[in-house]
Amino acid sequence: MEQRISVVTIGVADLERSQRFYEQGLGWTVGYTGEQIKFFQLNGLIFGLYPRDALAEDAQVPNERTGFSGVTLAYCARSKEDVDEVLERAEDEGAHIIKPAQDVFWGGYSGYFSDPDGHLWEVAYNPDWKIDEKGNVYLDAP
Fold first, then answer.
1. Which residue among 2, 40, 77, 86 is least enclosed by CB atoms within 10 Å?
2. Against a cut of 0.70, is the pTM above it?
3. pLDDT band at residue 139, thresholds of 50, 70 and 90?
């Protein structure tokens, strides 16, 4: 297997509500919309929204949710100001701020929000990572 991720799909309770949140709250553009799926083309990755119960059924696992799932999604911002702006916009569109943005132990600046279905997003600025003009993130400068 090549060292990459092609698609991240999250299970949601209300597909239309989640699409509105990602479009209006985060400013993303949906690339494909089907009756039960929404896909957003990101830089080199596809992000999908799918009904939670159907996603659990497809994976053949119980549709049970209790507490922290052990997974967070992250957006790497270009500056501390960008972190603040993203968190504010997400909150304005229905996100719940879990951890306000703050300087963190690893030398960066980050905060967390949960989307309308409780999926955790970290919005972080890491001064040691480089982001190219397309939004690709590098541990070392390309």
1. 2
2. yes
3. confident
